[in-house]
Amino acid sequence: MPASVLYSGKDFPGRSVLVRGSVYETIYRLEEAYWGLRTLTKTEARKTFAWLRSRIAAGTEDILRRTEYDRLATGGYRDKKTGKYVRVTYLKSLTGEPGGKHPFMLLCSVLRMAELAPDLARTLKDHFMVNEPGPKGRRPHMIEAGMYCCQVCTPQYERALRLAAPGLYRRQEAKFIANLKAWRERGGGTRWYRAPFYLTVLALHDIASKAAREELQCVAARVSPRLPAKWSGDDRASRAKAKAAEILLSYRR
Ligand SMILES: [Zn+2]
Questions:
Q1: Cβ contacts of 183 within 8 Å, gap of 6 or more
Q2: Is the pLDDT of residue 166 over 90?
């Protein structure tokens, strides 16, 4: 498996969310805008979505055609069975933790503003529902158990599922939350065993159901109030972690 990367964003000056030189940088910036780390006007959102739509490549794992920068900055691997070189990106999440499956990130950004780009929203949603385990998916038994594949990916999958198929999410939420509770117990109450901490905080905050909020309250009660101060660095991952820590502390009662 190739190592995953976190784009620093420093190759692209300027504050705009749309970066025509990189699909992935654009996805990161959309996500940053959602968490209040960047501004995004409706006009710019429309422009950004129109550009992303022009890069849709059906049938690829990424669903988007990467730019030259993306190709050079990220790699792939040689499939042992077929001998073919498979071009894929293992992008890190905004917090620098693993688990940032970027089609999930992008899907969330677009679905939240679906009225600005109905076509793109539909295409990404269809891709998600068909290619990721869903109602007709590859691993329905795991999904019914509230588990996508592991502790790293599951909160991100559930976050995307809640937006793409709210009814399906509701049906499996109890099991997903039961899994989280078990991981929290294994993690000593202050973290979820094997789950990327900050990314999971952001996913639960985004899901925002009663059960997700209660889960955050349980952890928030046990972490240090100085948690955000730990991440004072001026880099992408630190800014995102500080934001997630701040959000978590807002659940203290
Ligand atoms: Zn996984």
A1: 151, 192, 193, 194, 195
A2: yes
